Amino acid sequence: MRRLSCIILLACMTLAASAQQESLLIGPGDQLSILVFDTPDLTQHVRVTDAGEVPLVMGGGVKLSGLTPGQAAVAIEEALVKGNILNHPHVTVTVDQYATQNISVMGEVRTPGLFPLPTPRGILDVLAMAGGLTELADRKIVIERRATHERFNYIVSNDGSAALDQKVVVYPGDTVLVAKVGVVYVLGDVGRPGGFAMATNDSTISVLEAVALAGGTPPTAVPSHARLIRKTPQGYAETNLPLSDMQKGKVADMPMFANDIVYVPFSYARSMVVNASSIIAVAGSAAVYHF
């Protein structure tokens, strides 16, 4: 009768374990149920320590942090065999309660903060919970796992199909960080002067792309006298930019870096009185556009 009861209990625990997301990792503070088949004296309900270990009734402490429930069961079985407690143990581990059921979504989202997340959710669902990305959001999002502190990137692609094809999951306790994308500025005699977010998949933009986003150069502009102003460790550096030759295909297009400023003169006479300091001041108050 006792053996039958254990079999029934094991079956119930196995079903519960299979219902859990096996990819959801155990972390410090989680409350676990450990069932050793046919050895009820070794069954226990225990909380994972801050060091990520679980003290077994017999067999010493076993590090379970960063493992799935299935992997934790195997680790306990190995500890019981190594400690000469049981020759062929069969262990089931389930998580009764996670230490945290919140996630942190920070940075360039509409409503950053803590959000309840009792079960794993896709990254797009999580971003939707935070109100979606802002216009200045970098599409390279960083996710940090709670249990392992592992960090990896997810790109919110401009291609909708590509974004949906990437099955990235956020787990309870994880942190999602959306950084601010770089901005470049095109000022002077262009159709729409201002700042432009580098909101491509790879966060890059070239001079001709930026000028095109700024509405191009009208007939009154003097692109042959354009200037590039770039921030360096020593301060701002100003160089001549062969924009006219770029537009004619005589010179190769060139990439821009975050905070670069392209200035296109209105006319030669007016350009003489416009220096780098005044251009930088205008850039600081320029409207920022996104793709």
CATH class of the largest domain: Alpha Beta
**CATH topology value of the largest domain:** Outer membrane lipoprotein wza fold like
Q: Tell me the number of structural domains.
A: 3
Helical residues, percent:
10-25%
Rounded to an integer in angstroms, the radius of gyration calculated over CA atoms is: 29 Å
Shape: rod-shaped
Assess the beta-strand content as a share of residues.
25-35%
Q: Describe the largest sheet.
A: 6 strands, mixed
Number of strands: 18
Looking at CATH, the homologous superfamily of the largest domain is Outer membrane lipoprotein wza domain like
- State the separation between the terminal residues, measured CA to CA: 70 Å
Mean pLDDT, all residues? 85
Helix segment tally: 8
Assign the structural class, choosing from mainly alpha, mainly beta, alpha/beta, alpha+beta, or little secondary structure. Answer: alpha+beta
SSE succession:
HEEEEHEEEEHEEHEEEEHEEHEHHE
Low-confidence stretches: 4-22
Strand line-up across the major sheet: 16-15-17-13-14-18
The CATH architecture of the largest domain can be given as: Roll
